[in-house]
Design the sequence.
């Protein structure tokens, strides 16, 4: 019997959590697979248990409490408490397709890989704004690879929600770095560390995961901040490796300066027409983040999570 723990961190989101659990109840679970759901309540005062208890799930579900606010701390607590040989990650604002888990398990079985990933599809709660293209480009992620394709080299672009890992080979100890609790990037760092340790990742194109984007995130200023922080991650991650890759960070900073010089005028001109050009804006903010990667501002997660 193959065992899978579906891990869901949550913080002050009872309605999205209920929606995610409802989608899990409709999963097509292959024969010979035992599934359980583990919800990590990351609120200071535990509040998720009633939502989990009210969910009509066809498999066991429980909650654990992690009062320290932060994405790494919540996920580490969940990994430690998980009992499955495989751990599948679902965020509370996501909804897996019916065939999501079956597709991930098939990719792992056919390839013998250490982890499997699939597309993340953004769905805007309030569409119709002039910046919708920017929002969709920011939150969606699809490598367009074939079933079972090796995507280890694309580790920096892989989405964590929806991924399934072999726990013993990928998630020993506390795999997510708590220093990234507030700003994120803990998944990018982990994927880099695993890739350098020889772990192998594959793609499952049918393992779709929808991410619902609330109105609070459909704000150009928030997206620009997110792109900026993403640029910081690109330079910060090499410096957090052992040993630090200072040369790599220096090269990334140089590319950031070039991106600012080239994309800045294009983004500014486009904005005058009433919208942010998707590619130019992303390059501009990412470049600015790379040039100031060591400066930690207000976080996107933990207490600053929207």
Sequence:
């Amino acid at each position: 019997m193959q065992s899978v723990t579906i891990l869901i961190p949550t913080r002050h989101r009872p309605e999205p959590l209920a929606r995610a659990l409802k989608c899990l109840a409709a999963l097509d679970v292959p024969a010979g697979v035992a599934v359980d759901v583990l919800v990590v309540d990351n609120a200071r005062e535990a509040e998720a248990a009633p939502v989990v208890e009210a969910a009509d799930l066809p498999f066991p579900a429980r909650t654990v409490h992690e009062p320290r606010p932060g994405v790494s701390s919540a996920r580490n607590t969940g990994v430690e408490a998980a009992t499955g040989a495989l751990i599948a990650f679902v965020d509370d604002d996501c909804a897996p397709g019916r065939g999501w888990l079956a597709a991930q398990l098939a990719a792992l079985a056919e390839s013998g890989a250490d982890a499997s990933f699939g597309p993340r599809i953004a769905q805007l709660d309030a569409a119709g704004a002039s910046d919708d293209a920017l929002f969709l480009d920011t939150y969606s992620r699809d490598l367009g690879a074939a079933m079972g394709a090796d995507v280890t080299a694309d580790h920096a672009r892989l989405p964590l929600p929806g991924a399934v890992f072999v726990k013993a080979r990928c998630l020993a100890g506390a795999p997510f770095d708590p220093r990234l609790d507030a700003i994120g990037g803990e998944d990018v760092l982990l994927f880099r560390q695993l890739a350098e340790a020889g772990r192998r990742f594959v793609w499952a194109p049918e393992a779709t995961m929808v991410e619902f984007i609330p109105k609070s995130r459909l704000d150009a200023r928030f997206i620009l901040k997110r792109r900026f922080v993403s640029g910081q991650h690109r330079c910060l991650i090499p410096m957090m490796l052992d040993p630090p890759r200072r040369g790599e960070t220096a090269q990334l900073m140089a590319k950031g300066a070039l991106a600012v010089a080239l994309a800045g005028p294009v983004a500014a001109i486009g904005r005058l027409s009433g919208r942010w050009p998707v590619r130019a804006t992303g390059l501009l903010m990412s470049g600015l983040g790379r040039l100031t990667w060591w400066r930690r501002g207000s976080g996107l997660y933990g207490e600053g999570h929207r």
In short: The chain has ten helices and ten strands. The radius of gyration is 19 Å. The chain has a mean pLDDT of 92.
